[in-house]
């Protein structure tokens, strides 16, 4: 089937958001009297949405106490306040991301963001990073009833774009993207520079690993030629 749409994960795929996420998560910890933790530790908590990030960040405590629902709610209020104050301050596009988005656009693809990041952070971040105009639709962590690794957000993006899952290509950095895309019947590529909850991308159930979004555009162009009906 000819590919006509590309569905992009955001954190760890297009943008390196860890410095800002880590600043907000550590500011929340400090508010609660907890010591700060390294950026790499916070990076391993990113991928299943903000609430999960807060839960994992609070579970990292000296006594190993599991945070209660009230702890998570309180942490989330603090985290959200801090993240709104720094969202995008240090976020940068990965090398090849802009060129790759442009290449997909030039090849006539419809483009979507499918992220587990909540809408209130995603939309301002896309604007601030200068890439908002590339996307025909944006599906966030609170858009559907379920997040990645469930297939619903990818299927919702396909329906908004008016394409079949087999006509779309997902590109992400983590197990959540891989499992969600596979469950939706969407071919999926992984980039190796993202977060993947601290795990090795080579173990992901994906169609291929590409070094950048620019390379993903080449991959799609070649596959398109390879699989095109005569
Ligand atoms: O918010 C997260 O946990 C991760 O967001 P992502 O789906 O863009 O990687
Ligand atoms: Mg990601």
UniProtKB/TrEMBL annotation:
Single GO MF annotation: metal ion binding
UniProt cross-references to InterPro entries, sorted A to Z: HAD-like_hydrolase_sf, HAD-like_sf, HAD-SF_hydro_IA, HAD_2, HAD_sf, PGP-like_dom2, PGPase_prok
GO process terms (BP): DNA repair; glycolate biosynthetic process; reductive pentose-phosphate cycle
Gene Ontology cellular component annotations, sorted alphabetically: cytosol
The enzyme's E.C. designation: 3.1.3.18
Superkingdom of source: Bacteria
Record function comment: Specifically catalyzes the dephosphorylation of 2-phosphoglycolate. Is involved in the dissimilation of the intracellular 2-phosphoglycolate formed during the DNA repair of 3'-phosphoglycolate ends, a major class of DNA lesions induced by oxidative stress.
Name by which UniProt lists this protein: Phosphoglycolate phosphatase
